[in-house]
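Co-fold these.
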Amino acid sequence: MENNPVLRAEHLGIVFGGLKAVSDFDISIGENELVGLIGPNGAGKTTIFNLLTGVYQPTEGVIYLNGKSMAHKKPHQMVKEGIARTFQNIRLFKELTVLDNVKVAFNQGMKYSLLKAVFRTPSYWKEEAEIDRKARELLAVFKMEDMADSLAENLPYGQQRKLEIARALATNPKILLLDEPAAGMNPTETAELMETISTIRKNFNISILLIEHDMSLVMSICERIIVIDYGQIIAKGTPQQIAKNEKVIGAYLGA
Amino acid sequence: MDQVIMFLKQVINGVQVGSIYALVALGYTMVYGIVKLLNFAHGDFIMVGAYISLFAMTGAGMPIWLAAIIAVAGCALLGVLTEKIAYKPLRNSPKLSVLITAIAVSLLLENLFLLLFSSSPKPYPNAINFPSIDVGPIQVSGVTLMTILLSAVSMIALQLFVKKTRMGRAMRAVSEDAQAATLMGVSVNKTISLTFAIGSGLSAIAAVMYCSAYPMVEPYMGSMLGLKAFIAAVLGGIGIIPGAMLGGFVIGLIESLTKAYISSQLADAMVFGILIVVLLVKPAGIFGKNVGEKV
Amino acid sequence: MKQTVKVPWKAYILNAVCAVLIFVALSGMISAEVIDKYIQGIIMLVFINIILAVSLNLTTGFLGQIALGHAGFMSIGAYSSAILTKFIKDLPEGSFLQSLPPQLIFGVALLFGGLLAAVFGLLVGIPALRLKGDYLAIITLGFGEIIRVVMENLEITGGAQGLRSIPGYSTKYFGMCYWITILSVVFMYMLVRSRHGRAIMAIREDDIASEAVGIPNTYYKVAAFSIAAFFAGVAGGIYAHYLRILGAKTFNFTRSIEIIVIVVLGGMGSITGSIVAAIVLTVLPEALRSFSDYRMLAYSVALIIVMIFKPSGLFGRYEFSLANIIAKIFGKKTGSKKEAVEGGVK
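Predicted complex below.
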C-alpha cells in the first residue's frame, strides 16, 4: 500500500431498501496507480462508483480524497477535490458542441461572476479565451480538435467515449474513474482506447480506477485488481494472482 | 352539538366531493402509471362527459342511466382518439413536448366547447332518484350515497381487473417495461388504448355524479376538477389504485373543511399547499415507494 | 494555437445601431401619430410578452425545467410595483418623494417588483427544483395558483375589487419600456453565452453528468429560476402600469400557459424564437380580431401540430445574427470563429 493514497475508503457500505448492495468495501489507490475493479453482472461495481463520487451517500464508512474526508459531500464538491468519472451508458451533453462539452467541465476553475458575464467585462474575455485554448488543447490530445464544433450526439460511438474521458480530464482530477470504457467497442477501438488510457495516465499524472468486462484489457493494463461479488470484495491482487484465484473463477462461472 | 352536526355535514360533503375526485383520480393514475403522461386533458373529458350526458337527457329524452352509458362510451372513444392522434406520435419525445401537447389538447377541448355551446352554464337535470337516508339528525342525500357507492365499486372493480385478468396483467407489464412487454407478446398499443378508454370512461361517470350534485355544465368545469383529481392521484401515489381513492377523499375533506372553517377563497390554495408539502416530503405519495434515477 | 475568442466589436456596434434606429423610428411614428394609441398599446404588449417569454425560456428552454407558474411571479411584480407608485402618487402634495422625476419612480418600482419576484422565485425554487419533469410542472403550477389566490385576497392588493387607478407610466414612458425590453434580451443573451449559460444548458442535457463534472446543479437551477422570476416581475410591473387596473384572474393559469406557448412555438433555447413568437402571437390575434373567438382554438391546434411535427419549435435553437447576415450579403468571409458563435448560429 502507498503511504499517501489519492483515494481511500474504509468499510464502505450502502443499503437499498433493506438490501446490502455494497458492504465492507475497502480501497486504497496511490498516486499514478491503475487499478481494475471487476466482478460479475450486478455485483455492485457501478454502485461503488456512485458511492466514491458522491452520487449515493454511503450508509457506512468514509471516503478520503488526498486524506480529506468526503462525508456528506455532493458530487460537484467531490469533483473539486480531484475525482472525476465517466459513465457506463455514456452521458454526454448531447446537444452541445464537443468544445462546449469540455468547456462545461472547466467551469469550476473559472471565476468571472454572473454580472461580469452579462456586462462582458475584460475578465470575461480573458477567461473565455484561456478556456477556449485549454479546451482545444485537451481535444487535441485526443485527436478530436477537428470535431470541436460538431454536436456531441453526432460523434461516432468510440469518439463519444473518448470525449467523455476528455471531459472528465477537464476537471483536472487526481483520480479518474472509468466505468466500462470499452463497452460496445470493437477490438481495434479497444486497442486504441488502451493506448489512450496509458497516455493520459502518463501525461496527466493521474491515478485510474477502472471497471471493465473485457478481461484481456483489465489483465493487460491494470497493476492491481479488486474483484467483488454480491457487493463484497472476494479477492485482491495482481492480475496473475487474480487469474489463479479460485473464488474469482467460481464467481465468474457461477459455481 | 350543533357544531358537531355542522362538522359532520362538512365531512359528508367532503367525502362526496372526494369520491368524485377519486373517480377521476383513478383514471388519471391508470394513464400516468402506464404512459407516464400527465394528461392535462383528463379533466376536460369530464366536461365532455357532462355535455354528452346533458344532451342525451334533455335533447334525446333518455333516462339518466342510458345517458351515463352513452357518456362513458363517448368519453372512452374521445380518450382513445386523443391518445392515437396527439400522444402516440410523441411517445419517445421529451417530457416537455408531451406535457405541452396535453395542455394543448386541454385548451382545444375547452375552446371548442366554448365555441359550440358558449360560456354560459347550462342547468343539469336532477335525475338521480336514490333514496336519502337519515343518520341521526343528519340527512345524507341520495346523490351523495350513490357517488360514494359508485366510486367504491369502481375502485374495487378496477383493482380486480388489474390484478386478476389477462388484460390487467398486460397493463401492469406495459407500465413496468413497455419494451419487455412487447417481447412477451403484449400489444402495447392495444393496452394503452384500453387504459385510456377505461380512464376516460371513469371520468364520464364522475361527470354525471358531479353534475347531479352541482347541476351546472360549462366548458371550463373540468380543468380545476381534473387538476385536483391529479393532486389526489399524486397524494395517494401515482399508479396505485387504492392510493387514488384515498387521495381523492383526503383532498375532498380538506377542501370542504377549508371552505367551511377558514375561507372559501383559500380552498384551492390549501389543496395546492397540501400537494406541495406531500411532493416535498414524500414525492412518491402516501402509498408510493421512492425510486431514484438509475445512474 | 490561434486566438479564437475576441470581442466582436462589429456585431456589438451593429446591434446597438439597429436598436437605436428602431427606437428612433418608433418614437418618430408615435409623435407623427402614424402609430395611434391603440397600436402603441399592442406594441407595449409585445414588449411585455418578449420579456416574459425570454425569461421563461431561461428556465424552460435553456435549463430544461418545466415551469407553469410564470404568471404568479408576474403578478408579484405587478402588484408590488403598482402599490409602490400608487403610494407615492397618493402622498401629500409637495412631499420629497413626489418631487422625484416620475421616470425614476417608475424605474425603481419596476426594479422593486422584479426583486420581490426574484425573492419569491428563490423561495419557491429551492424546494420545487428538487423535483423534475411533470412533478416540477405541477408544483410550479401549484405555487403560481397559491400566489395568485393570496394576492387576490390580501387587503393591500385591493382584495376582490382589485387595485385601481395605477399611474399610467408605461404608456407615458414608452421609450423607457422599449429600452428595458432591449436590456432584458441583452441580459439573457449575454448570460446564456457565458460559462454560466453553458452550465445551465449542461444541466438540461444531463443533470447527473453536469454534477459529475463539477457543476453545482442546485445553485444554477435556483439562480436561473430567480432570474426568470425577476424579469417576469419587471414585465408584470410594466403590465400593471399599462393596464392601470389589476383584478382577479389577470394572472391566472391561462396567462402562464400563454407565455409557455410563446416559448415553445418560438423554440425552446432560442431567444430569437421567443422574440419572434412573442411579436407574432401578440400582433396576430389583434390583426384578426374578428376571429378572436377562434384564437385559443387556433393556438391549441398549432401547438399540437408543432409538437408532433417540429417539437423543437419554429426556430429550434437558432439565433439570429445581424453581423452574420450582413457578412453573408456582402459576400465577406465571416470574421473570426468566435464572432460567429458570439453573434449567432450555434
